[in-house]
Amino acid sequence: MNACCCCDSFSQPVYGSLFGDPMVFTAAANNTNLNFITAGPTNGMIANPANNSITVNIFGVYEITFSLTNQIVAIGSSQYSIFFNNTTNITTSNIFFQANVVLLTTRAPGEKTILTTLNPNDVITVRPTAVVGTNSYGNPTLIVTKVF
After folding, report:
1. Is the torsion defined by CA of 45, 68, 89, 130 positive or negative?
2. Is residue 124 within 8 Å of residue 89, measured between CB atoms?
3. CA distance 27 to 59
4. How does pLDDT run across 60-104, given as a tens digit for each residue?
5. Smallest Cα–Cα separation from 76: which of 136, 22, 138, 126?
6. pTM here?
7. Burial category of 52 from C-beta neighbours within 10 Å (exposed 0-12, middle 13-18, buried 19 and up)
8. What are the start-end ranges of the E strands in 11-131?
9. What angle do CA 108, 146, 31 make, to 5 degrees?
């Protein structure tokens, strides 16, 4: 044990990340996982670009951050939410975009960070949940880090 705190000084950090294509905008479809093409650095969890998810292996408190650039053509809106085992807490885990300008394409970056307790085998995904109009997203990122 480390004398300065109540933890093993040799424990490995636990983290995982997924990244999407920064050059391509993908159509946003309600309740469809964001498309990630690459797993980034990962230790102690499974980052899987094939099913666009990160699976946690260890119980603990985690910081979860997702970001993307949303594109709306003309008038529309979209909401993106973090899902845990196919369920979301819509009040704490989403970001919302809206555009009210006819015949104009609006692009806006957005990011959401939350802290939550996760259990082994919890699966984390991000999905559009309220798409109205023509929306797409680019450069999605999902990063999960165990903080305690």
Report:
1. negative
2. no
3. 34
4. 999 999 999 999 888 888 999 999 999 987 667 788 888 776 666
5. 136
6. 0.87
7. buried
8. 15-19, 25-27, 38-39, 45-48, 53-56, 60-84, 94-118, 123-128
9. 45
Structure tokens belonging to residue 70: 């949303």
User: Tokens in use for 51?
Assistant: 């099913």
Q: Which of 40, 25, 38, 1 is nearest to 139 (CA)?
A: 25
**Contact assessment for residue 37 and residue 51, using Cβ atoms and an 8 Å cutoff:** no
Is the alpha carbon torsion for 131, 129, 137, 36 positive or negative?
A: negative
Map out the domains of the chain with their CATH numbers.
15-146 (2.60.120.40)
Return the structure tokens found at 54.
């990160």
Say if residues 133 and 24 touch (Cβ distance below 8 Å): no
d(CA 48, CA 16): 10
pLDDT tens-digit profile of 52-66?
Answer: 999 999 999 999 999
57-82 b/e (C-beta count within 10 Å ≥ 16 → b): beeeebebebbbbbbbeebbbbbbbb
